[in-house]
Amino acid sequence: MSGVDDAALVLRHEEGALVLAGDPARYGKPLRIDFAEGRAAHRRRFGGGRGQLIARACGLAAGVTPSVVDATAGLGRDAFVLASLGAEVLLVERVAQIHALLEDGLARAARDADTAEIAARMHLAHGDATRELAALVAASDIAPQVVHLDPMFPHREKSALVKKEMRLFRELAGDDDDAPRLLEAALDVATHRVVVKRPRKAPPIAGPAPQHVIEGKTSRYDLYVHRSLKS
């Protein structure tokens, strides 16, 4: 966790949704999670289906829809994509404020006709995956065929991560200095593969080398494969 002053960030309700708000000059608009509208809705309709990088990396293919543990849930966008494609997903989030936003976003998605079925495949847990992943998975109904990781990468000032929304998120979550331990925990839990999202030119997480890499324009997925996913 970073040294952010929690008093500077406040959870409150606005227009029927829970939001996390701070100084607008520093953080911009209050942060809310909305799976039914905005960016999530656009990606659900036009994102490219199972041809998307994350879907390919997690092994979603014709006749193959693995269960996924998103051990770094964040704002839930990757988990929502996977659930919209039919996967059962366990979202693990360690930051209490972000977990609260996810809980609220999922509750609203469950009440929306367009997203209710997707939200029913998204199961939320609060905990630190570096230390509690096995216990959190055991307490759920999700068989962890695939574990997806998107650890926070130390940023440069020119990075897109200085956008106000991500500045707020980063100050709460901090950098994932324990990413090697997180990878180790994921490898212990996943029955088939671990998928790690990285900036395209960043080094892999310290530890075993990935067996496969899927590259996009700005990011890539490092794959650590135990066994093949089959229909």
From TrEMBL:
Q: Where along the chain is S-adenosyl-L-methionine bound?
A: 77-78, 93-94, 150
Record localization: Cytoplasm
InterPro entries named among the record's database cross-references: 16SrRNA_methylTrfase_J, SAM-dependent_MTases_sf
Q: Which reaction equations make up its catalytic activity?
A: guanosine(1516) in 16S rRNA + S-adenosyl-L-methionine = N(2)-methylguanosine(1516) in 16S rRNA + S-adenosyl-L-homocysteine + H(+)
- Which GO molecular function annotations are given, in alphabetical order? methyltransferase activity
Which Enzyme Commission numbers does its entry carry?
Answer: 2.1.1.242
The source's domain of life comes to: Bacteria
Provide the family line.
Answer: Belongs to the methyltransferase superfamily. RsmJ family.
Q: What is this protein called?
A: Ribosomal RNA small subunit methyltransferase J
Q: Which gene encodes it?
A: rsmJ
